[in-house]
Amino acid sequence: MPQTKHPVFTYESSWIPDYRSRFQKIGVPEGAQRPLRLKPHVYREVSVEEGWVEAPLDNAWMAAYRIAVQQGQPVVAELRIFPLAGPRPGPGRWRGERFGPGAKVPYGGLTSRLVRRVRVAEHLRVGVTILAKMKREEDLESVVARFMPATDAGSSKRRAGARPDVVLADFARQYVNACLSGSRRPIAEVADANGTSVATMRNAIERARERGLLTKPMVPAGEPTQGRKGGALTPRAKRLLNQNARPKKGGRR
């Protein structure tokens, strides 16, 4: 596969073979399975669609995020980090899946320092922006719709890559808790916990205030609030968080 310097969205649809018993164990419906000619009562295959956002971490390593859809929004379901060099068998994959322990990796292997470069929220935002652009191309519309379902008219007016209010409310909740715990750098603390940059999280907290999810910090009369820590969740933010945590009627508990 071609190598890139910037995050890209890649898509692949393929038939995955496995034992029929394994498909049954994980709950794949019989109707979604196709028997193989070789021992059809033992081996089956299913059609799997995969969407990945791939982003190089440096000149030697790649981060790949498997995209799933949750409540109509693209989310990260899996993170993989693997060597960037050499041809790869497909999106989100590397040669180690074919060569095993003998696959070549950069000297010293994966390090904690490299893992700290992963920016899940930031790369997902870029991936969603790419999906929005792809959706304008007629031949890709059906593909993109699987990973970025149509939203209501109100949300369609938001800029591409904007976070849902429930996500902003969750960031605001973490920020308030960090402030109450006495953190000197609450935004940096929340950014680190969510794998994103301080600048990105600062922007998210400001967006939460703008959308009525987080109040401004309390300061003495006449003093500016800009640059001050603090604030509280609004009733709207609390409702969103409660609704998101509450199991739907008729669903499993």
What does this structure look like?
The protein is α+β, with helices and mostly antiparallel strands. It has 2 domains: 119 residues, no CATH class; 84 residues, Arc Repressor Mutant, subunit A, CATH 1.10.10.10. The protein is built from 10 helices and 5 strands; from the N terminus they run βαββββααααααααα. Strands 1, 2, 3, 4 and 5 form a 5-stranded antiparallel beta sheet that branches. A hairpin with a 4-residue loop joins β3 and β4. α7 packs across α10. The longest helix has 16 residues. The relative contact order is 0.10. The C terminus is likely disordered.
How would you concisely characterize the structure shown here?
With 253 residues, this protein is an alpha+beta fold.
Structural class: alpha+beta
Cα-atom Rg, whole angstroms? 22 Å
Strand content: 15-25%
Q: Please tell me the overall pLDDT.
A: 77
Helical stretch count? Answer: 10
Number of strands: 5
**Helical fraction:** 25-40%
Give the ordered list of helices and strands.
EHEEEEHHHHHHHHH
User: How many separate domains make up the residues?
Assistant: 2
- Major sheet description: 5 strands, antiparallel
Unreliable spans:
151-161, 248-253
Give the CA-based shape: globular
Terminal CA distance: 42 Å
